[in-house]
Write a structure and sequence with these properties.
Blueprint (H helix, E strand, L loop, with lengths): L5 E4 L6 E3 L5 E3 L2 H12 L6 E4 L27 H10 L7 H13 L4 H12 L7 H28 L4 H4 L3 H19 L1 H10 L8 H6 L6 H13 L4 E5 L2 E5 L2 H12 L1 H5 L2
Parallel strand pairs: 1-4
Antiparallel strand pairs: 2-3, 5-6
Helix pairs in contact: 3-5, 4-7, 7-8, 7-11, 8-10, 8-11
């Protein structure tokens, strides 16, 4: 008896594009054909799991609904997100700081990656976990998103037919937020920024020495500082094996890092 396997395809939104009416379709029709054929297979012991932050096109026009399952994953609720900030050593000390974190959680709808890179910036110098100081410098970013969402709600309420054209995409918000992290890292820790971009060439988890080799022209001390900066900012994912810790990038961070790698200076200056 053949044993089925589970295959996961992450960030499928990267192979999607939006049509004139706000619907998504695959950039390359071969993807649609492959998924349709997979769904129509008479016997298929394996399972294919797709993850996407955008709505995937309906497979084979919805004729085989019993062979597919859609699971909507929501972001963290405010209580869960605040608990996670605490685990990340970001603790509000005043009612104002508590409100600031609540507003950040709200605009990013509890998206863990967005909250994680923000907490990494708050933890790092010069803020050193000072939420008030961080909000003083970057609170206007959250305020701008709040205003954008409010305007979007008003417009979509006035004209529901064009809702897709007015809605604020969480995917775009998170990508923009990660982009800003890259820009700030380029200014505050140039070598860490270079390491982050070059590390995107690794398709899987690798040991720390493999990361340090990427910036071997720098001193040992500078290499370790750059690597630790990425760790403190929560830009590295860790995988544990027997007697070994491996490091990799989150798929969205890796995607953006690869874009920066093609032209670091112009990307970081945006």
């Amino acid at each position: 008896m053949t044993t089925g396997k589970q295959v996961e395809l992450d960030m499928v939104e990267e192979i999607l594009e939006m049509g004139d009416r706000g619907e998504f379709h695959y950039k390359d029709p071969l993807f649609a054909k492959f998924f349709d054929l997979f769904t129509q297979a008479e016997t298929m012991p394996s399972r294919l799991i797709l993850t996407s932050q955008d709505q995937l096109p309906v497979m084979v026009e919805g004729r085989y609904l019993e062979r597919s399952h859609l699971e909507w994953l929501k972001g963290l609720n405010p209580e869960e997100a605040l608990e996670l900030f605490g685990i990340w050593e970001v603790h509000p000390q005043t009612d104002s700081e508590h409100e600031y974190l609540q507003r950040i959680i709200s605009v990013y709808e509890g998206h863990p990656l967005a909250l994680r890179v923000i907490s990494g910036e708050i933890r790092e110098s010069p803020y050193n976990c000072d939420i008030q100081a961080y909000w003083h410098d970057y609170g206007e970013e959250t305020i701008a998103i709040e205003q954008q969402k409010q305007a979007s709600d008003l417009r979509s309420a006035a004209d529901s037919v064009t809702l897709a054209n007015y809605s604020v995409s969480l995917t775009d918000l998170v990508k923009c937020r990660v982009e800003r992290t890259f820009t700030r890292l380029h200014v505050s820790s140039p070598l860490a920024y270079v390491l982050l971009c070059m590390g995107a060439t690794y398709r899987c988890s690798v040991e720390r020495t493999a990361w340090l080799i990427l910036i071997a022209d720098s001193s040992k001390e500078a290499q370790l500082t750059a690597f630790q900066t990425l760790q403190r900012r929560f830009l590295l994912e860790t995988d544990y094996t027997v007697g070994q810790v491996l490091y990799r990038l989150h798929s969205l961070i890796r995607s953006i890092a690869l874009q920066h790698l093609t032209n670091p200076e112009s990307k970081a200056a945006r």
